[in-house]
Design brief:
This protein is mainly alpha-helical and 470 residues long. It has helices spanning 3-23, 74-80, 83-92, 98-111, 115-121, 131-142, 197-202, 209-232, 246-255, 261-273, 281-290, 296-307, 315-326, 332-341, 359-373, 379-400, 406-416, 424-444; strands spanning 58-61, 66-69, 72-73. The longest helix is centred in the middle third of the chain and has 24 residues, at 209-232.
Length: 470
């Protein structure tokens, strides 16, 4: 292992040490025990506070600033693991042994050969489309190649449906303690992942058709992201290079150059950091679609749609714009004072869940510094970021618990890797598809169609008037 790669590991372990010193080293176990349904919770608009399901995939403790995937803390995974292992871990619930890892890596390479999908995609004016729109289209086009729901034996049996689009509380009014909406999360539903005889025969070991579709998507979204990036710059897409890692391939398929070990390692860490994050909007959107027994390609397409909104993905692009606008560290105070007077939110700060320093920013901050040290064009922006962080924390840290979030430093990291800012959100999707597929797969094993309620606040007894009388 080179000196630089060892140094990157030390940076992450130091960030972990700081986190432990500042926030304690154990998440609260009493919050993670199995639930007896139905459960009482306070729900706000947008389902804030609602509990939709149980999950063993990931844990976020927002007050301590902890992120855990399948029991492993994010610092250890970033220091010692790689995206192939982590995506396998999220899907299967355990780290792969060496034979499983090799098989899985090979599958990701094989599934990354999306010739048919890319041919279809290039029939569209991709160079004129927004990158997220093109990614959503490309992901849906992947479905042409691979879906069991289109085959006769793969069709869900309507008579076997375990839930429908019905509300178990009759009226759209405030509930008065009705106990009908009991969570029926008890029936194994594996129809969605039904295996054909040939597939069953071919694979008795680690996976099923469901996992294969997940692997296909994990491999495919990256290939499509890279292809879109190349088409946007007037170049032809590249196939994955079988000698490169997942992270290395992502960079290679974007730039056409074999990345350095440092670039590959940093991209790997970024992929790990973005792979899963609780019941966020895009994860929920993908699960809602999956819960109708639609297929996983449409479900992931829904996740991509949700991620494209500025309240979810894209804040890192805005951060880079702000840092460029500020230009120099000694301009921070004037710029920030003006924003505060106008009550504007500062991109890259604050988080719905974290009311402590986001652990992902703890890792990306020092990595941004490490990269910026060797990148004279980015160093001034990094200096501005440090000053902005200092002043924001002194203004809002103690009072409003506002700290940098994952997006604050990720844009600087990507810029050091030579990645155009319009690819920042697609890269988020290339990683988060691991979390989406894992959570969809987990949920569908005990599926219940998502069906919250709205409280009707409209009128009654209005008299219908023909159009000529209105
Ligand atoms: N800059 C300045 N003030 C802020 C910021 C910010 N970035 N974020 C929150 N605040 C203030 C609010 O003005 C509000 O103040 P008030 O109590 O005086 O009205 C208070 O903190 C609470 O704000 P909310 O918006 O209610 O906080 P919430 O937790 O709902 O919002 C959010 C979280 C949407 C991320 C918000 O912090 C924000 O808009 N940040 C900037 C955009 C951003 O960086 N998004 C990326 C998030 S990470 C991700 O999605 C991967």
């Amino acid at each position: 292992m080179s000196k630089d790669i060892i140094h990157i590991k030390e940076i992450i372990l130091k960030a972990a040490q700081n986190a432990i010193q500042e926030t304690g080293n154990e998440p609260e176990p009493e919050l993670t025990k199995k639930i007896d349904w139905p459960i009482k919770c306070s729900v706000g608009p947008g389902l804030e506070g609602a509990i939709a399901c149980e999950s063993k995939i990931g844990y976020v403790n927002g007050s301590k600033g902890w992120l855990v995937y399948r029991g492993y803390n994010i610092f250890d995974l970033c220091a010692y693991s790689n995206f192939e292992e982590v995506s396998f871990l999220l899907l299967h619930g355990r780290l792969p042994n060496s034979c499983e890892l090799e098989t899985y890596k090979q599958k990701l390479i094989n599934y990354g050969n999306l010739n048919k999908t890319l041919r279809l995609l290039m029939a569209f004016p991709v160079e004129k489309m927004h990158v997220m729109a093109a990614l959503r289209l490309g992901t849906n086009l992947m479905r042409q190649e691979f879906t069991i729901l289109d085959t006769e034996e793969g069709k869900p049996d309507i008579n076997d449906a375990i839930a429908s689009d019905e509300d178990s509380i009759a009226m759209e009014t405030i509930p008065f303690g009705s106990n009908h909406a009991v969570y029926e999360f008890d029936k194994q539903d594996t129809r969605w992942f039904k295996k054909t005889k040939a597939e069953e025969k071919a694979r008795q070991s680690i996976d099923s058709i469901g996992f294969e579709a997940c692997y296909h998507l994990i491999a495919g979204v990256s290939v499509i992201v890279a292809a879109i990036s190349r088409i946007h710059s007037g170049k032809l897409p590249l196939e994955p290079n079988p000698d490169l890692s997942f992270a290395g391939n992502l960079l290679y398929m974007i730039s056409g150059k074999i990345p350095s070990p440092i670039e590959e390692r940093i991209m790997d860490i970024s992929l790990i950091l973005h792979a899963d994050h609780g019941m966020n909007a895009s994860t929920f959107a993908s699960m809602v679609v999956a819960s109708t027994l639609s297929d996983i390609f449409f479900s992931v397409g829904a996740g991509i749609g949700a991620l494209s909104g500025p309240l979810h993905g894209g804040a890192n692009e805005a951060v880079i714009k702000s840092l460029q606008e500020i230009e120099r560290a000694d301009n921070v105070k004037t710029w920030l004072d003006k924003k505060m007077i106008n009550k504007e939110k500062i991109s890259g700060f604050g988080h719905r869940v974290y009311k402590a320093y986001d652990p992902r920013a703890r890792i990306l901050g020092p990595l941004a510094q490490f990269l910026a040290n060797n990148s004279p064009a980015i160093m001034p922006i990094y200096d501005v970021a440090c000053e902005l962080e200092k002043q924001m924390i002194s203004k809002l840290g103690a009072e409003k618990k506002i700290f940098p979030n994952v997006d604050f430093y990720s844009g600087i990291v990507y810029s050091c890797l030579g990645i155009d800012s319009k690819l920042f959100t697609p890269l988020f999707a290339a990683s988060r598809v691991a979390g989406w597929t894992a959570r969809i797969y987990e949920y569908i094993q005990n599926n219940r169609i998502f069906r919250p309620r709205a409280i009707y606040t409209g009128e009654f007894n209005k008299k219908y008037l023909p159009v000529s009388m209105r």
